[in-house]
Amino acid sequence: MPGVIGIIGGMGPEATILMMSRLLAGTPARDDADHIPVLVDSNTRVPSRIAHLIEGTGADPTPVLVSMAQGLEAGGASFLAMPCNTAHSYFAAIAGAVAVPVLNMVELTAAAVVDLHPTGPVGILASPAVERTGIFATAFAAHGREVIYPADRDAILTAIRAVKAGRAAEAMPRLTQAAAELARQGASVAVIGCSEFSIVAPQLTTPPLALIDSLDVLVGACIARATTAPHPASQQDLNR
Amino acid sequence: MPGVIGIIGGMGPEATILMMSRLLAGTPARDDADHIPVLVDSNTRVPSRIAHLIEGTGADPTPVLVSMAQGLEAGGASFLAMPCNTAHSYFAAIAGAVAVPVLNMVELTAAAVVDLHPTGPVGILASPAVERTGIFATAFAAHGREVIYPADRDAILTAIRAVKAGRAAEAMPRLTQAAAELARQGASVAVIGCSEFSIVAPQLTTPPLALIDSLDVLVGACIARATTAPHPASQQDLNR
Fold first, then answer.
1. Is there a contact between B17 and A20 if contact means CB atoms under 8 Å apart?
2. Which CATH architecture has domain A5-104+218-238?
3. In chain B, which stretches have pLDDT less than 70?
4. Which chain A residues contact residue B42 at CB under 8 A?
5. Is A123 helix (H, G, I), strand (E, B) or coil?
6. Chain B neighbours among A 109-168 (CB < 8 Å)?
7. Chain-chain contact of B37 with A42 (C-beta, under 8 angstroms)
8. A2, A107, B38, B129: which could form a disulfide with A42 (CB 3.0–4.6 Å)?
9. Between A and B, how many CB-CB pairs are < 8 A?
10. How large is the ipTM?
């Protein structure tokens, strides 16, 4: 009996749709029935992660995220995934509140990057908010690796806002420049750690810097798990 | 408190994603939080509607569809919608099994078409399976209107298969020809009543035949209901 993927989504809703599209595109299928069943809570009313984590204002989103996870579990999800890097700051509380496994996008990405690029600093293309949470720094430190962010944080924020506003073309030169800077600092690989950048990443060319999209890593792990792993492993094994 | 849309989905999964994308595009929003929360059961394992309705073989999908609707209700959906025309053959059983309202895509489409095009036969661009269920014929008959389908059913099936296989360009001439035939038979409007055709409809030009996409009608009704109608109307009022 193949698994049902539960998606803790809506952060934002476009990233959730992007994940579903990539799941569809990534699954070998001749008919609808070959695709993986997915339960999605695209909750656009999760309290702002930025306001809580960075600005120190606003409600703690943890109870809402936990309730979403429990709802998906009750609805029949075999395991859960959350296509939002920033929200992984609350991962431990979410994973601790359900019996089904929760895939950790940030830790899975670190493992994938380390496998393919065994040395040197790892560039991160993500919002300054993600940088300040330290989630990627922590995940890579567990592998003895250092992360670096582009120095011009305003350029990154401007690029994110351009994509959100549907003007992806404006983001491209800024992202290309940020990637070049990471390469100059010695990185051979950068993580796409931001939904907005996942949207434009397929159009981005950044040699000599390789790009690994955290959303693609999560999608690949979901497909592998849903199609080949009938028996849930323990939470501990899951994100190695 | 705005509504949460529950989507009885997965028939197929691409139509479900298309509905979510159109909900997103159709909702006025400056930030993620302005978007409508959506609960989605994209269940790719619903027993084949074609096999049950047309071929007379295979399991009755009703229990699965009812269980999906009840799960979405239990998960907090304020009302339900089902982006699959064929599955509306089971609408009464689904709507009767939950306390929340269920939007009827087929009846809403008939009402929208009749409003805009008050006379003449109504063309339907949908699979021969949809034709044989009679769901559009019944919905339009309630308004005293007749429906007509293109005579060349093989051309329609070929077009559907081409879109499913990612070769949309091949479907275009067949659909254009089918639309021209409907216009020659006196139709001033045709319903897009098939998910595959919804995918390509924006690229289709068929003057003098106007096209109304049942998926767009459903999306419009969902947005209107979720953003402006805090108190669920009775099921009876809902699909008028």
1. yes
2. 3-Layer(aba) Sandwich (3.40)
3. 1-2, 229-240
4. 20, 37-40
5. strand
6. none
7. yes
8. B38
9. 85
10. 0.91
Q: Which fold has domain B105-214?
A: Rossmann fold (3.40.50)
pLDDT tens digits for B26-81?
998 878 888 999 999 999 999 988 889 888 888 999 999 999 999 999 999 999 99
Mutate to test the interface with B, among A8, A39, A68 (most CBs of B within 10 A): A39
Q: Do A75 and B71 touch (CB under 8 A)?
A: yes
- Token digits of residue A205: 């060319």
Tell me the pLDDT tens digit for each residue of A82-129.
999 999 999 999 999 999 999 999 999 999 999 999 999 999 999 998
Where do you find CATH 3.40.50.1860 in chain B? 5-104+218-238, 105-214
Alpha-carbon distance A193 to A109, whole Å?
Answer: 9
- Alpha carbon distances (Å) from A202 to A157, A192, A213, A220, B221: 19, 11, 9, 16, 34
Known catalytic residue at A194: yes
Cβ <8 Å between B42 and A40: yes
Q: Which of A10, A24, A75 sits opposite B37 (nearest CB)?
A: A10
The answer to whether the beta carbons of residues A44 and A10 sit under 8 Å apart is yes
